[in-house]
Amino acid sequence: MDTATQIKAWYRKILVCTDFSKNAGLAFELAVNTAMHHRGSTLTLLHVLQEPDAQFWKNYIYDVENVDGKARKEIDRRIEEEYLPKVPESLEFNTVFKVGNPAQMILDYAKEEEFDLIVVGRLGRGSIFFGNVASRIARYAECPVIIVPLAFADKWSNRTAE
User: Fold this and answer.
1) pTM metric for this prediction
2) Which of 94, 126, 134, 140 has the fewest CB atoms within 10 Å of its CB?
3) What CATH number does the domain located at 3-161 have?
4) Is the pLDDT of residue 4 over 90?
5) CA 44 – CA 12 distance, rounded (Å)
């Protein structure tokens, strides 16, 4: 097996995580690009609703049993509007929604599903919080992790414009 074939085999399952921040959007674009350059790759978009956020919604929604379903509908809508238009038809793409501690849920899911690569933005909606998530993922993941800084946005837009 030549080196190029070996490299292509490395990234068969790519996990990209989102909190719907600008930085997560940039990480998503990089993950799509990476998946397209590794023929046969599958890209999975994971959104984790942090447990305190889920509890907040449960306190203010009368239909407590269906709060995760309501959150899922909103997340699905945002994915459809913000992410799906950027996914080439030839790319196998799916989405996953979890509730819990974001770093732990990402690490557990990546391990359970045996992902070959995790792509995450450095900072998210709660800059300090998501920075800690990215750091924890990088430290404990059992596969390579790409942490995309927001500062990469200008370089990325120049490359995609060429």
Assistant:
1) 0.81
2) 94
3) 3.40.50.620
4) no
5) 11
